[in-house]
Amino acid sequence: MNCNWPLSPFMQRLARAHANCIEGLPIFGGLLGVAIIISKTDVTDPLASAGAEKRGARSRGGLAECR
């Protein structure tokens, strides 16, 4: 059963995007925690900007579909 049925399509997409972020947080947070503990954050720095740009483009594209 879809719990988002009374919401508009835009709000349904926003709810799914939020759930995706919450699901991925423990994995990426754990990886970042390990990198910090073993002092290898130089590995994560270039990935952070590339990942943010890619994620932003995906988010803008997904939200545009709901309009």
Report what the structure shows.
The protein has 67 residues and is mainly alpha-helical. The chain has one domain (11-65). Helices cover 81% and strands 0% of the residues. The protein contains 2 helices and no strands. It has helices at 9-37, 41-65. Helix 1 runs antiparallel to helix 2. It is elongated and about 45 Å long. It starts with 8 loop residues before the first helix and ends with a helix. The mean pLDDT is 76.
| Low-confidence residue ranges | none
- In round numbers, the mean pLDDT is 76
Give the tally of structural domains. 1
How helical, in percent, are the residues?
A: over 70%
The share of residues in extended strands comes to under 5%
Shape: elongated
Task: Calculate Rg over CA atoms.
Answer: 16 Å
The largest sheet is: none
Structural classification: mainly alpha
User: Count of helices?
Assistant: 2
SSE pattern: HH
The strand count comes to: 0
Instruction: Give the CA-CA distance, first to last residue.
Output: 24 Å
